[in-house]
Write a structure and sequence with these properties.
Two copies of one chain form a homodimer.
Chain A (H helix, E strand, L loop, with lengths): L7 H8 L3 H9 L6 H14 L5 H8 L4 E6 L5 H16 L3 E6 L4 H12 L5 E4 L6 H7 L6 E4 L9 E5 L2 H13 L5 E5 L5 H16 L9 E3 L7 H10 L4 E4 L2 H13 L9 E5 L5 H6 L4 E4 L2 H17 L7 E4 L2 E3 L7
Parallel strand pairs in A: 1-2, 1-3, 3-4, 4-5, 5-11, 6-7, 6-8, 8-9, 9-10
Antiparallel strand pairs in A: 10-12
Helix pairs in contact in A: 1-2, 1-3, 2-3, 5-13, 8-9
Chain A binds a DNA duplex through α2 and α4.
Chain lengths: 335, 335
DNA sequence: GTGAAAGCGCTAACAC
DNA sequence: GTGTTAGCGCTTTCAC
């Protein structure tokens, strides 16, 4: 119900004070007598004045907005992270701009350039880049950035990630202990740090458990819908007796696929899944497979915290936060 | 790799032209000779100039940003919509700001006020308000708004929704035709238009099919995680022989619950579900129940289109778009 | 305890 | 075909 464009000087005029006083009153940025305050607020109310956020950002250089560059919004892992981040930010008076890259490197690049050009105060990036230099190139020097879920060798930016090595290593050991000889693994996009770390853990554990390493048992999906099936078909022709799936969407797909093939989890084949979040399907099958649950909420919370901290203090040392996943063995007993 | 604050006048100076020329060159907004263009672009490159989006928005009044007020981001129905909307917008040079209300009316109100105060050019709202006046109050007059998925009696704003009446009506008729006598229904939040329409369809169909209406068979969840179980427990004590679930998240929960109770779909009990999207679980059970699939992508696409159209032409007549769901009967034959 | 006024970086009349 | 310049609405320094 605001009439067209009420500005701070309209308010000042009506209240019989200067624009400085109005500004200081609404921002509580210097002492204003109670009497004057009352006049100002009265005028604001009468005119239905709302300060223009755009003019304010322009003037102060602060946008009160964070950008989040995500590879796949409709993936519940990221959707939940977005939710947590948004919660944290809005509690601190910040807004969230979303950019979806669909795991496309040039979309990521474009979005970084767009957002850093005066749109946001800081950037959260779950990067799909294979090349750190290309990422780095797109970010203006000194711009507050926190990498999320995916990181790089070069430790130039703060990051908030999940430990990838340990749960996979443990999975292999457990499966080997149960007698598996041919353990297949389905990773995500090969270029991502998370994938690399997981596959490295697999290789190391295979060696440590004295199993034979067969490159045919290592497959890569793209962590988007319908990317696991192809891997599964190939793995099954390789007579593998256990499968580790490194990502939640592909894990659900795996369960469905195996189910349709008439294979029973824990009997015809052993399964270990990153579940990412409490997917529907995992509730039905969680006691028939080992589940690696990532701390999505904690990840989002930490991401929100870190980016705001960096904006506060851009010269703070690089911060690497590594959260750990929960490992729940198939018997349903442990945690 | 930008050094601190390169402005348009730095570029103008280096290129030996006026700021107007630089502006017109980069915006292609009036004729500039090739020679001058070259000088300008050369200078831009040399200085690493990026126009400040914030200053530009301030000056032009256009933010190139749309706000989307969503009740629950981590609900895949909305996550998918966000993705589709974002795709559409970014293809037209717009950004997307997300605000999550968690089905909380005052969060919605606050966010509307925040976003409309100079942050966005237009607003997409999947409203959780029960009271149209309260919504309307928060929106500045003439501000471009499109209501999404949920609407109101008062046709003041354009909307993009899904037909709610027809699929529920059809569900009841089909179940009655198969011999069901006591059909339970689980709706979403009672205050939402979508819920009201669906429950109205249920009542009407029950009457038309000459079944007995029992208010105990009408239950309401809140469409968030773990909200259906309570309804289910109550419905089962009422000896209902079929259940209609009006929302995807609750539908998945229902399948899991019934499964855990050892009840077989289509045998011990009939089920009709809004599936919202291709949830994991529906892939396993879709042939054992009737599925109502909402056109989420089309909804998002239409929402994106409509809001941009409204921004282009704010005085266009109110536009109500109603999309239809796909009804897939349990035998797997129809569509 | 409050006011005057200088810009922030850009666009767009208006002028030539 | 290009330049001059007046602001957009706000914050903030400097003055009193």
């Amino acid at each position: 119900m605001v009439s067209l464009k009420v500005t701070i000087s309209d308010v000042a005029k009506l209240a019989g004070v200067s624009t400085a006083t109005v500004s200081h009153t609404i921002n509580e940025t210097r002492y204003v007598s109670q009497e004057t305050k009352d006049k100002v607020y009265q005028a604001i109310k009468e005119l239905g004045y709302t300060p223009d956020a755009s003019a304010r950002s322009f003037r102060t250089g602060k946008k009160q907005t964070i950008g989040f560059i995500v590879p796949d919004i409709s993936n519940k892992f990221f959707a939940t992270m977005i939710e947590t981040v948004e919660n944290h930010l809005s509690a601190h008076g910040y807004h969230l701009i979303i950019a979806n890259t669909e795991e496309n490197m040039s979309r990521e690049e474009t979005n970084i350039r767009l957002l850093t050009a005066g749109l946001v105060d800081g950037l959260l990036i779950a990067s799909t880049m294979d090349d750190f230099a290309r990422l780095d190139e797109a970010i203006p020097t000194g711009f507050p950035v926190v990498l999320v879920d995916r990181t790089f060798e070069e430790k130039k930016y703060s990051s908030v990630c999940v430990s990838n090595f340990q749960p996979i290593y443990r999975s292999v050991c457990r499966l080997a202990g149960k007698g598996s000889k041919r353990i297949g693994i389905i990773g995500g996009l090969p270029r991502l740090s998370s994938t690399k770390e997981r596959i490295a853990a697999y290789r190391e554990a295979i060696a440590d458990c004295d199993l034979e390493l067969d490159e045919n048992l290592i497959r890569y999906g793209d962590s988007r819908e319908n990317s696991a099936q192809h891997c599964l078909e190939e793995l099954l022709t390789q007579n593998c007796d256990a499968i580790i799936v490194c990502q939640g969407l592909m894990a659900s797909e795996t369960i469905i696929y195996l189910h349709k093939q008439g294979m029973r989890l824990g009997q015809d084949i052993d399964l270990v899944s990153f579940v990412d979040y409490d997917s529907d399907i995992n509730q039905l099958y969680s006691n028939q497979m080992d589940c690696i649950t990532q701390p999505v909420e904690a990840l989002g919370e930490a991401a929100g915290e870190q980016i705001l901290a960096r904006i506060e203090n851009p010269d703070a040392p690089i911060f690497e936060k590594v959260l750990t996943s929960t490992y729940k063995p198939s018997d349903g007993a442990g945690r």
